From TrEMBL:
CC annotations in GO: cytoplasm
Keywords: ATP-binding, Biotin, Ligase, Nucleotide-binding
PANTHER family xref list: BIOTIN PROTEIN LIGASE, BIOTIN--PROTEIN LIGASE
NCBIfam families documented for this protein: birA_ligase
EC number of the protein: 6.3.4.15
Name listed for the protein in its UniProt record: biotin--[biotin carboxyl-carrier protein] ligase
InterPro entries referenced in this protein's UniProt entry, alphabetically: aa-tRNA-synth_II/BPL/LPL, Biotin_CoA_COase_ligase, BPL_C, BPL_LPL_catalytic, HTH_11, Transcriptional_repressor_C, WH-like_DNA-bd_sf, WH_DNA-bd_sf
Origin organism lineage: Bacteria, Bacillati, Bacillota, Bacilli, Lactobacillales
Stored Gene3D superfamilies: 2.30.30.100, Bira Bifunctional Protein, Domain 2 (3.30.930.10), Winged helix-like DNA-binding domain superfamily/Winged helix DNA-binding domain (1.10.10.10)
Biological process per Gene Ontology, one example term: protein lipoylation
Length: 333
């Protein structure tokens, strides 16, 4: 951890307190001039650290956008979490692409890649994912799965959706809903998509690495987007980000929830929350399965996360995520 990260961490740990330049210099075994230069650097990066004359420095306001220093400082207080490599970018092709390359180069490590814009974002089955919102947050977590069972590995999408909803809940006035299997809806509009991809070890025929990519529509508008997107897409916070939403605090919360589920995936502790927030329960919907157009009433999910559809006359169909596609427009009215 470099000096800027160390200073930020100690200021965050003592909110409202003024720490003298000499105390900081003694703590980190550097000169007071080095402390002054580093405080200036942090202010230039978007933090508000004020100088209280000879009394020292006080952190007035955190930088609200994603920042690796602040996020690492928050994660220092989560001893259950392993070490995570964090990289933040303004724009990338796809955070999942960065995460995939990271796993290839560092198969034993965990990486988190964050961006505010993607030029080649994608969703399930290679569909384009709109990533040009004025306030978007796109991130991918790369890690090795603890489970070899491919049926359990398929639960990571459901675990990620649950963790994302739980981490966002404190900032929202209404409940998020989860459109099976990987989209989040807020006020009847799609506000997030989740894409889980695996790296397969062909020699041993097992999944050796996983990428969990999440795209969030935080704020902005879709007036310049394709008309089909305008009919479905929405944002969590309207046109402007609220003052109380800190991307780093949200990301830290997501990581805590998700890692708890990851450690004990087989217990499926996320299933009840996901089920309670399932979009369209009791609604008759149309969907495509094996190339055929079908209809039925959504009943819920089972303990493997498969969707249960009542097709009438006592027939209940169990759908797996890879075999079916729901049009989102039927959930927006």
């Amino acid at each position: 951890m470099n000096l800027a990260s160390q200073i930020l961490t100690i200021l965050m740990d003592q909110p409202g307190e003024t720490l003298s330049g000499q105390r900081l210099a003694d703590t980190f075994a550097v000169s007071r001039n080095a402390i002054w230069k580093t405080i200036k650097q942090l202010n230039q990066e978007g933090y508000q650290i004020t100088s209280q004359g000879r009394s020292g420095y006080q952190l007035e306001k955190l930088y609200q956008r994603a920042d690796s220093r602040q996020l690492q400082a928050l994660l220092c207080h989560e001893p259950a979490l392993p070490a995570i490599h964090i990289a933040v970018h303004d724009q990338v092709t796809s955070t999942n692409d960065l995460a995939k390359q990271f796993l290839i180069d560092h198969p034993q490590d965990i990486g988190l890649f964050i961006s505010h814009q993607q030029t080649a974002g994608r969703g399930r089955q290679g569909r384009p994912f709109n990533s040009n919102l004025s306030h978007g947050l796109y991130f991918s977590l790369a890690f090795g799965p603890k489970q070899a069972d491919p049926q359990l590995i398929s639960l990571y999408t459901i675990a990620a959706a649950t963790a994302c909803c739980q981490a966002l809940a404190p900032y929202l006035d209404q409940e998020l809903k989860i459109k099976w299997v990987n989209d989040l809806f807020y006020q009847k509009r799609k506000v997030a998509g989740i894409l889980c991809e695996g790296i397969t070890d062909l020699e041993n025929m097992r999944v050796s690495g996983l990428l969990v990519g999440i795209g969030l529509n935080l704020a902005g508008d879709f007036s310049q987007a394709d008309p089909a997107i305008q009919k479905v897409a929405g944002t969590l916070f309207g046109h402007h980000l609220p003052d109380n939403f800190n991307e780093n605090q949200f990301l830290a919360s997501f990581l805590v929830y998700f890692y708890q589920y990851h450690k004990e995936l087989a217990k499926k502790a996320f299933i009840p929350y996901y089920s309670d927030h399932l979009l369209g329960r009791g609604q008759r919907v149309s969907y495509q399965s094996a190339g055929q157009e079908e209809q039925g009433v959504i009943l819920g999910i089972n303990d493997m996360g498969h969707l249960l559809i009542d097709q009438g006359q006592g027939e209940v169909k169990e759908l797996m995520s890879g075999e079916v596609h729901f049009g989102s427009q039927q959930f927006t009215s």
